[in-house]
Structures are given as C-alpha cells and as structure tokens.
C-alpha cells in the first residue's frame, strides 16, 4: 500500500502543472462548501443557543377576546388568566405540565432612593423568570422562592437604574427604595443587553395590584415534548382546561392568546435543517464541477500513459492493480487539493468568527471535526468516482501496447 | 523442451480475415539461444506476442515450461508473464520518470515484494550488467546501450524461464549492438533460454539457431 502511494506520488510529481490546475478546481469547490457550511453553522448555532435546554418547551398564555358565543355569553368578551389557573393547569394536566409560572405587571410608579428617583412599571415574577430571559446577576441575587412565600418587599433592578438611584451599581444591594408608599430592599442588580425591568416577587405584586386575581400571563413549562403532535396536544389540553374555568368555547382560539414556543422551535429547526441540506446540495454541485475536471484530466492522463500502462501490463501488472493505481491517483489529487480548500475555508471562517462570532445572528461559525470527517468522506468518494471511468479505460489497455513505438 | 508450439493458427478477424499464422510447429530447448527472423508481415511479431502471452491464438497448443498457455484469464496471463518471461524491447520501454533501479525493480512490485528487498535485488542485477553506478539515473540520462542493459536487468529480476527480446538492437549503433548481443550470449552461457526476434542477419548469426518464418509458416532450415 505504501508502495502504491509512492507510485502515485511519482506520477503526480511527473505532471506538476497539470496536477495543480486540476486540483485547483477541487480546492475551490471545497472552499466554497466550507464557507457555506460555516455560515449555516453560525446561524444554526445562534438558533440552538437561543432555544437550548428546556427554554423552548414552554407555552405562554396571554389575555384575549372571545370570537364565539358560549353559554349565553356573546362573543367579544375579554378573558384574562387568573391566579387560580396556575394550580389548575398543573392539576388538570399532570402528564403535560411540569410547572406553571406567571407574572404581573403593576402600573407605572415612582421608585425613589434618598438621592434620586426613577419611573417604572415593576413586574411581579417567579424565580423561573431569570432562567427564561437569561438575566445575568451583577451583584446580589434574583427573586427566590422564600421571597414569594413571605410576600417580601424586595426588588431586583437593572444596572442603569442602580446607577441613577445610588450613583454606583455596586452600592445598590442592601439599600432601600420607596415605591407604592412602601419601603423595598434592593437584593440584586442585573446586567442585560436590552432588559431594564424592575422585578419584585409575584406574590407581593398580586397583593398590591392583583386583588381581583387577574395575572398578565401564564408561563406553562411543558414536559414530554418531542413531536409537533405533542406540542399541539399540549396547546389544546391547556386551552380546554382554561375554557372550562373561564366559560368559553374550547374551540375558540382567540379567547386566550397562546404561544407554544415548542411548535415554533420545531418549525424553525425544520427550516434550519432544510437550510443545511440546501447548502450541502449547493456545495456538492460546486464540488462536482471540480470532480468532472479531475475525471477529465485522468482520462487525458490514461491516454498519455497508454504506452506506460502497456509496459506495466507486459511485465506483470494485473488489470486490478492498474485500476487501483488510477483510482487512487484520482483520490490522492482530490483529497490533497480538497484539504487545501478545507484549510483555506477554515482560515476564512476563523476570520469571520473573529469579526462576527459574538453577534446574535452568527455564533461560532467554524467547522468542527465531524464536518471535517464528512468532507473527507465526500472527497474520497468523489475522487474515487472521478477516477473510476478513466481507470476502467486504463484496464482496457492491452499489454501489446508495450511493443508499439512511442 | 521449454517452448513447444503445436500447429498454432491465428487469424485477425475483419472484413477480409487475415490468416497470419498458418500452423506453426516449433520446439525450443532449455538453454538455447534462438533467433526468429522474417520480413515484416511474415507473422514474426504475432508469433512473438503469442510466445510472450501478450496475445491469444485460435487453435493449436502452446506449452511454456510445462504450462499449457491457453484460454487464460487476464490475471493469470499477467502472473505468468511476470514470473516466466523477461521482456526486452526495441525501444527499451523503461518508465521515464523512474530511475534505473526503480525500473529494474518494477516487476517485483507486482509480485508484492517489499521495497527494500526488491531494491537490493535490482541493485544486484544492475551490478551484473555493470551499471551499479548508474542506478539512480533516469533513463533520459543514459545512453542507448545502457538503457538496453537496464531493460535486460529488469527482464532478469524475476528469474524467468525465458527471455523474449524484440529487435533488441534495432535502436542501437553497430558497436553497441555487438555489446548487447555479447550480454545475451553471456546470459545464455549461464543457462538462460533466450529468444530474439529480429530482421538483422548479424544478430541472427550471433545466435545458436535461426528460425526463419515467412508468410505465417516456419521455413525448413
């Protein structure tokens, strides 16, 4: 085998310019494939990160207006989820619902420290809010379960507000502010790209502004989600529970607005896999033009070397070894120049990564080892295919060719 | 008897079928140095092709060193050529991008002999031809006589039953021709069976027996 590789190396060195020109087409094809795959990978990575873990397995319910009359009620009635729904949904659908959270917006209020004040609409939240929106804490802690149990008057604020109120975000934790005529303890300061809400415990918010039991939304964490059917079943089961509780037609889709993040996740995943597939198709067809070039040049090579092949046959080369040599030569050209393309492509993608790698639409657009292996398989198969027909032609060379004059 | 031909017939098909060999009977004994002479179109090239298992015949029987050469597969024919026959050609037929040593070693490559071993064996043959100092030269850097001696070294490396030479002096000047013929005679005196196809009477005279072929039939001597 090593000998055969030496034979091939010799044949390739013997035709440097031709080998190079042929190889360039392959290099270009692979280069394009890597660039396209890298870009797709970057976009896919950013999608995967946004939907990672259980973040996508959620169903959000917001208030809406009925579109169908029901039990004597006319259509056009406002339906708002209430605090009892939180326990109800879990009790009604134990196999679909893992937990239910909610939030409650309070109206705009003045929040004042001793030195300054801001105007905000505090949001009563569950601890799960932090994970949902990826709220990174800078100082102190987020709202916790104990806060909810004891209806504590604690507050988590953004770093900009902390600076306004206390001059320095670091000093905010442990300080007190006044809001709704009450005194609140600041327990944490967070730093988020675009969120600037003021968070208080859900139960505290309900005690202040939710005495009617109405909540702003329901965040249902689903379990056992795998397929679109699971997602659709979860949506309709949740709707049925809520329809019974709020007296509306369970086929009325506008009474409570529902957004199943898992369905959207599945749809997006599907479009990403279609994107990925199209890129493979485009890349492979680009590569194909390179392969046709290799095949062509192998034909020329076989023709030029007819006499040499004849000599080899006369002194004992079997058709199989002639076949193998041509095919392997083709694989060697394809693989060698393919890898140059892989290397160039990866270099360019590293540069792209440095320029855009941390942006939202593209995350880590580099090619990993699994793609490199896939590309290797494609290259070897492509090279073998390119060499096959010229090689079959080479096996047709009769040993008598050796006796013809050059 | 190392070569035995019994009533060999060969016809090239075509619009006008060409009957080139018309019942060839020939026996060559081990250790003979034989030349086959004939004009062009006499059928001597076809006969050489059949002797070298490069081509097939239609009827008759050809025994080479006790093996019936008939209806062989491509693979079997390649194997027999490799092991039993050493070829020497008019135009040397060395591979241009391989040096002398690699050219000589090439038949062993097809036997799967390791690189180290076959290079050692090739060096031995080159020494025998007095070309050890040219081992790493490409054919293009060698003179005609040197090239032909490299080719002879290559033909000897598998220790074949016979050497078949096709006009081995056809591309050489008269002085070099004599040298090459001397090489063949020396090999013959060591016991090698050699068949030379030629139209050069000088070459014929230098062999032990001349077989004349004309119009597809061996002429009685």
Automatic annotation (TrEMBL), chain A:
Residues 281-399 form the ABC3 transporter permease C-terminal domain. Residues 19-234 form the MacB-like periplasmic core domain. It comes from the Bacteria. One of its GO terms (molecular function) is transmembrane transporter activity. Belongs to the ABC-4 integral membrane protein family. The chain crosses the membrane at residues 20-40, 277-302, 322-349, 369-389. It is found in: Cell membrane. This is ABC transporter permease. GO terms for cellular component: plasma membrane. It comes from Paramuribaculum intestinale. It is a multi-pass membrane protein. PANTHER family: ABC TRANSPORTER PERMEASE YTRF, MEMBRANE COMPONENT OF TRANSPORTER-RELATED. It holds the Pfam family FtsX. Keywords: Cell membrane, Membrane, Transmembrane, Transmembrane helix.
């Amino acid at each position: 085998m090593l000998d055969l590789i030496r034979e091939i190396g010799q044949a390739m060195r013997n035709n440097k310019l031709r080998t190079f020109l042929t190889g360039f087409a392959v290099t270009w094809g692979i280069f394009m494939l890597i660039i396209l795959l890298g870009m797709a990978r970057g976009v896919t990575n950013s999608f995967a990160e946004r939907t990672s873990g259980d973040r996508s397995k959620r169903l959000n319910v917001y208030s809406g207006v009925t579109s169908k009359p029901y039990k004597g009620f006319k259509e056009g009635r406002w339906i708002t989820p209430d605090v009892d729904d939180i326990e109800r949904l879990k009790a009604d659908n134990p196999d679909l619902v893992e937990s239910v959270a909610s939030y409650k917006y309070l109206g705009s209020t003045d929040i004042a420290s001793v030195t300054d004040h801001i105007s905000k609409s505090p949001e009563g939240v569950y601890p799960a809010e932090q994970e949902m929106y990826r709220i990174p804490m800078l100082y102190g802690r987020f709202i916790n379960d104990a806060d909810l149990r004891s209806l504590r008057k604690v507050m988590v604020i953004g770093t900009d507000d902390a600076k306004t109120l206390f001059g320095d975000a670091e000093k905010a934790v442990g300080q007190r502010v006044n809001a709704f005529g009450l005194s609140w303890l600041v327990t944490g300061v967070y730093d988020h790209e675009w969120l600037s809400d003021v968070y208080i415990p859900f139960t505290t918010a309900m005690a202040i502004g939710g005495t009617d039991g109405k909540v702003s939304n329901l965040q249902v964490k689903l379990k056992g989600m795998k397929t679109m059917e699971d997602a659709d079943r979860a949506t309709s089961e949740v709707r049925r529970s809520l329809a019974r509780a709020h007296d509306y037609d369970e086929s009325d889709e506008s009474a409570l607005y529902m957004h199943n993040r898992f369905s959207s996740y599945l749809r997006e995943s599907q479009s990403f896999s279609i994107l990925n597939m199209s890129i493979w198709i485009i890349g492979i067809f680009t590569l194909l033009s390179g392969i046709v070039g290799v095949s062509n040049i192998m034909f020329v090579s076989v023709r030029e070397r007819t006499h040499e092949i004849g000599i080899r046959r006369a002194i004992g080369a079997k058709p199989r070894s002639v076949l193998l040599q041509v095919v392997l030569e083709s694989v060697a050209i394809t693989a060698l120049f393919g890898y140059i393309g892989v290397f160039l492509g990866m270099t360019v993608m590293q540069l792209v990564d440095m320029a855009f790698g941390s942006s939202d639409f593209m995350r880590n657009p580099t090619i990993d080892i699994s793609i490199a292996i896939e590309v290797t398989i494609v290259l070897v198969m492509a090279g073998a295919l390119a060499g096959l027909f010229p090689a079959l032609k080479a096996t047709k060379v009769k040993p008598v060719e050796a006796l013809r004059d050059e | 008897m190392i070569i035995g031909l019994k009533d060999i017939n060969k016809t090239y098909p075509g619009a006008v079928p060409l009957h080139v060999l018309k019942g060839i009977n020939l026996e060559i004994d081990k250790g003979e140095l034989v030349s086959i002479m004939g004009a062009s179109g006499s059928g001597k090239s076809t006969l050489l092709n059949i002797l070298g298992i490069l081509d097939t015949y239609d009827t008759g029987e050809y025994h080479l060193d006790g093996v019936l050469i008939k209806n062989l597969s491509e693979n079997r024919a390649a194997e027999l050529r490799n092991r039993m026959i050493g070829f020497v050609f008019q135009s040397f037929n060395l591979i241009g991008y391989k040096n002398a040593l690699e050219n000589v070693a090439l038949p062993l490559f097809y036997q799967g002999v390791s690189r180290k071993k076959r290079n050692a064996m090739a060096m031995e043959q080159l020494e025998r031809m007095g070309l050890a100092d040219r081992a790493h030269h490409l054919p293009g850097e060698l003179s005609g006589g040197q090239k032909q001696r490299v080719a002879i070294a290559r033909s000897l490396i598998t220790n074949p039953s016979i050497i078949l030479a096709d006009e081995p002096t056809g591309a050489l000047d008269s002085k070099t021709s004599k040298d090459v013929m001397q090489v063949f005679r020396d090999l013959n005196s060591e016991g090698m069976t050699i068949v030379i196809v030629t139209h050069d009477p000088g070459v014929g005279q230098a062999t032990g027996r001349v077989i004349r072929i004309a119009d597809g039939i061996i002429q009685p001597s």
